[in-house]
Amino acid sequence: MFKEFIKDRDVLIISIVILFAIAFQVVSSEIEGYKEINAELLEDLKYEETKASAYLHAFEDQKNKNDNPLLPGPVLNITPCGGDIALYQNLDYVINYDFPTKPKKLSITFSHETVKQDSIINLMPLELNEKGNTNYGEVLTSYLAVGEQGILNAEIYAEDYDGSFTLTSCKYNTYLDNHEYEGDYKRDHIRSPYVGDGYANVTVEIEGKIWEQEWDSLEECAEDEWIIEWELESYNNYRKNESEKELTAVEFCSGSVTDMAEAYIWGSTFRYPVLTTENSANWSEMYDNSGDISYLSTCFDTINADIERYVSTSLDTFTKDIGYGYHWAYSLQGDFRTVGLSLHSSTNSTYVTTDSHTDFGYKDSRFKKYQNYIGNRNTPPEESFYLHEYGMVPDEGIKYVSFIFEVHTFTGGNHGMYNYTTLNYDLNTCKKITLKDIMSDEILFAQGYELQNGQDSLWMSLLSARLGDILSVDQGELPGTTEWTPVPWYKSAPNYSYSNLKAVSIHDEGLTFSFQPYVTGCWACGWPEITIGWANLWDIFTWGDWEVDDPTLYPNTVVQDVQLENIGELATKLSNSYELQDLIFSSTHFYHYQLGKGDQYFETSLEKQDGAISYGLSGNFTVKDVFVVKKFINVINSIIGFDNFSYSESISDADIQINLGTCLTKNAWNSILETDLCSSANGYFSSEDMIVWVDSDLYGLNRDRVLIHELGHSIGLNHSACQTTGLMSSHSNRDQSIISFSNFEIAQIKFLYSQIHSVGNIETFSKDLESGITYNEMTSYTDLEAKELDSTMNNQFCPDEKSTVYEEGENKDDNS
Length: 816
Description:
Blueprint: H1 2-65, E1 75-79, E2 84-86, E3 90-98, E4 103-112, E5 119-122, E6 136-144, E7 150-160, E8 165-175, E9 183-184, E10 195-205, H2 211-214, H3 218-222, H4 225-241, H5 249-254, H6 257-260, E11 265-275, H7 297-319, E12 331-342, E13 351-353, H8 365-369, E14 384-386, H9 387-390, E15 400-410, E16 417-426, E17 431-433, H10 442-446, H11 459-474, H12 498-501, E18 504-507, E19 510-514, E20 529-533, H13 567-577, H14 580-588, E21 589-594, E22 598-603, E23 613-619, H15 623-640, E24 645-647, E25 656-661, H16 668-673, E26 683-686, E27 691-695, H17 700-714, H18 743-752, E28 755-759, E29 764-768, H19 775-781, E30 788-789, E31 806-807
Parallel strand pairs: 2-8, 11-12, 23-24, 23-25, 25-27
Antiparallel strand pairs: 1-3, 3-6, 4-5, 4-7, 7-8, 9-20, 10-11, 12-15, 13-14, 15-16, 16-17, 18-19, 19-20, 21-22, 26-27, 28-29, 30-31
Helix pairs in contact: 13-15, 13-18, 15-17
């Protein structure tokens, strides 16, 4: 009996629990339903409150106008109302309305400050809403804003049959939008049977004892502070954690790198393109235009060799100094994208469409008026056209291949570093193409624009302005928000130099510019890859005239033009006008700015050319480079008063070879690590090898400046610390457009190739200056006291800019 009671009680409890759970679920469901109803009621209430408020305001407005009580006017809302809108693109506008009584009129009027005639859109009749009337609802309309960049006004008018009305207005900034394909985005890699993948790998592995890596002896290693304070301490901390005995410095240095070092193997790799003509038949079913391209075989071999040289140089330079103590993740990873590939001939040049512009004919009057809405600074000649019709390209399709190389390196720190290099080739001539090859001022000059002082070209300023506009629009801002060229663009040089723009690639849609990290902003800000379309390139892009080379020199090349006629006489006067102590000091001291140490002058023996010297050019030099070198030679001979220097057409016969070449090791890591001469400089002169090297990627004024600067070193001139003058100045604040020697530099050239004098008891002795003579020897011979610069000058020795003050006493033996 008792057991049955217990059993019945258990059944009862289970039943109650089940019923409670069901009831709870039903109640919860009801609660959620009421929540949804309440939310809908709240939305309806908010809407009615908004409408009531609008009625009240409208009623008060009408009441203030006359004493007759009127019903409130219609309630209107338009989306969007304000902001920035693109010209020549249809934009949808949503008008929400609520009439107190039957609607009579609803319209929207657009008026642009640069367009004479307004556009009126009648929105009647209105569609029935869910209640079967037209008193409230929404209507959708679209409008194409036209005109020039400026202000667009929109007015929406609503009136009902009781005479109540409402007028609502909105104001917009109109701008020229980017063309199709333009913007900041990563170009896709083109898969093609003509471009295969090659791989290069470099592994560095060290072995042996710790002390054998960088020290001459075990004792030297054990006494090294870096070993004691960093390597040994870190290793012993690890041994403590493992409950092992700590090592002495001698024991640590005696150990094997495989046992003691954090890392002893490092790997780097590079994937690169390999062009081939052999796969077209195998892939003909998958790819269009897979015709015979066997005639490109020789050209492809040339390009492949060029690419392999770039890849191997990058890997070898990065890895050659890896050794003990380097970060365990120290590596280079290189990859590529084929972004442009045009192998087959076509009868017409590129077809350009300008769907975002209808204002044609190149002009400039509007730019000043609308300088706050500068836009693309471009009005194409027609709505659609072939590039050859107005541009500077042949009447045929161009054949090319274009690659973007992305190299990531890690050497330690918070993050790695990226470096972008582009290689472009004209497949008709197999010539490597750079940015300066495909840009021209020809059309801009024809429009009446002229180069200003300090400008290399007009196209670079205009291109920078357009790239900045494209980035502005791409980021949702008005054109000109990102301003990379001062306004107006044709009056000054752009904010960025040629080196910032030279990573350019070619493709069907136009050109793409890959910016290096930190050029346009901080690391976290990113670095853009901006594509600019042909409609924004038609007036500055050129193709095919690779042999055309303008030999015209910039004004004031080598020396000021006004000094040329009497430069010999002037040089003598200048040499006599400066202190002999200054001339001797500058000939035997060179200036160097060192991070953390500031401005410093170091003493060195005199280096000059003691005999007749001939110069010759090699590499990627231009006709203009030849003219610059020849003018340098003629001017220097005139300054010193005899023909000591000459030009040789045969590079093998030249005493000093001037090589214009690409520095394959110039990249983000080598400019910091200074692994070789060309990686950290745009040029150099080696007195040991008798070679002047100048980066052939340089352009314009900077190219000429570097060339003349290095030639100045070759005749004996040293760096100076001049702030605003001096072609030989190495100070960071100097004007990089300076391409002429200063007065003191002219005097110094004259001094270097003259005699110095010593006055005896009976007669005056003289001797020629020769390489190797020191500061003390020259001052002693000329009966001057060897002195050092006054410390208050902060080593800013520049007789052209300030008088020189010396401290009494001999120079220190350590040349500090």
